[in-house]
């Protein structure tokens, strides 16, 4: 027996005009809904440019409360179209306390959960530690308790954000908590100053690690990444060329959908949620885990 979920991934370029970005995301969501999508995943920080290329306290003005303007907007759209929307926002939690937060809007318009990005990078062109406090939990009507899937009408969503996608621990903990899908809103690209072959290796590694999460956990993975070139306003770096390549992988890592590196796209795909059960029977990785021998995983390093 199958249990089909029609899901959509979205990728588009962003500008400094919030209204323009909302219009692009809205058009994509409407396109997905018209194609029968029940779940739509947007890319990371899609209401603005990727502002973390440099450090400026003035950019904290981009942050908003949750609930707030964006959750009201996307909640109304979710209700109008009858779809579940996973959006990504710069959250102002309190004065001086900000997060990179994914939100889930149920198809009746309710804000039913949020996840605050746990792994925060700090690299040239990705100065996120200046802006974001690591998350303390996913929340879905319960007290904070770590990596927790968000219960929706279309299934249990293991929502993570961008840099989280490199960490097998995050994917595994979501799987162990009952996630039926892993979702990664993303903003990642290449340094245009790097050699082309190095840019390709980085993109390939990014795809491979997430397909590996699908295989290791027997779960579908959905990834939405932005496209386009965004300049560094300080001109200290060559800017960022976001490489798109959004994709959906099945529980054996197989591609179910894959977008281009440079085009605005909406990819709609049917995902059989029952297939994970069969895959986990064939490859019982969860059964054979040696949980008695993994204690050192909570250490930074085994000296």
Task: Describe this structure as you would to a colleague.
This protein has 6 helices and 16 strands. By secondary structure, the protein is of the alpha+beta class. The protein has a single domain (4-298), classed as Carbon-nitrogen hydrolase (Nitrilase/N-carbamoyl-D-aminoacid amidohydrolase, 4-Layer Sandwich). Strands 6-5-4-3-2-1-16 form a 7-stranded mixed β-sheet. Helix 4 (168-176) runs parallel beside helix 5.
What is the secondary structure topology, with strand pairs?
Elements: E1 4-11, H1 18-34, E2 39-41, H2 69-81, E3 84-94, E4 97-105, E5 111-116, H3 128-131, E6 138-139, E7 150-152, E8 155-159, H4 168-176, E9 181-186, E10 189-190, H5 196-217, E11 221-225, E12 227-230, E13 240-243, E14 247-249, E15 255-258, E16 265-272, H6 275-282
Parallel strand pairs: 1-2, 2-3, 8-9, 9-11
Antiparallel strand pairs: 1-16, 3-4, 4-5, 5-6, 7-8, 10-13, 11-14, 12-13, 14-15
Helix pairs in contact: 4-5
What is the mean pLDDT?
A: 96
Order of helices and strands: EHEHEEEHEEEHEEHEEEEEEH
Q: Find the count of extended strands (DSSP E, 2+ residues).
A: 16
Largest sheet at a glance? Answer: 7 strands, mixed
Brief overview:
By secondary structure, the chain is an alpha+beta fold.
């Amino acid at each position: 027996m199958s249990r089909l979920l029609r899901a959509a991934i979205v990728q588009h370029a962003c500008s400094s005009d919030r209204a323009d970005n909302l219009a692009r995301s809205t058009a994509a969501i409407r396109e997905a809904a018209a194609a029968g999508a029940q779940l739509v995943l947007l890319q990371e920080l899609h209401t603005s440019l990727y502002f973390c290329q440099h450090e400026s306290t003035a950019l904290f003005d981009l942050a908003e409360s949750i609930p707030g303007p964006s959750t009201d907007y996307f909640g109304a759209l979710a209700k109008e179209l009858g779809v579940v929307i996973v959006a990504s926002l710069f959250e102002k939690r309190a004065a001086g306390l900000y997060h990179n937060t994914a939100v889930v809007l149920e198809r009746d318009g309710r804000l039913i959960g949020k996840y605050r990005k746990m792994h925060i990078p700090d690299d040239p062109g990705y100065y996120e530690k200046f802006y974001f406090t690591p998350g303390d939990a996913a929340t879905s009507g319960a007290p904070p308790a770590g990596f927790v899937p968000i219960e929706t009408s279309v299934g249990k969503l293991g929502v993570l954000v961008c840099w989280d996608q490199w960490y097998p621990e995050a994917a595994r903990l979501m799987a162990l908590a009952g996630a039926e899908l892993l979702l990664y809103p993303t903003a990642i690209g290449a340094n245009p100053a790097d050699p082309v072959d190095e840019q390709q290796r980085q993109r390939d590694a990014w795809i491979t690690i997430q397909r590996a999460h699908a295989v290791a956990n027997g779960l579908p993975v959905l990834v939405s990444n932005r496209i386009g070139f965004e300049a560094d306003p300080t001109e200290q770096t060559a800017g960022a060329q976001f490489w798109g390549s959004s994709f959906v992988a099945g529980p054996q890592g197989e591609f179910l959908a894959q977008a281009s590196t440079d085009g605005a796209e909406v990819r709609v795909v049917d995902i059989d949620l029952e297939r994970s059960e069969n895959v986990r029977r064939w490859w019982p990785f969860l059964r054979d885990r040696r949980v008695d021998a993994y204690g050192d995983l909570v250490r930074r390093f085994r000296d």
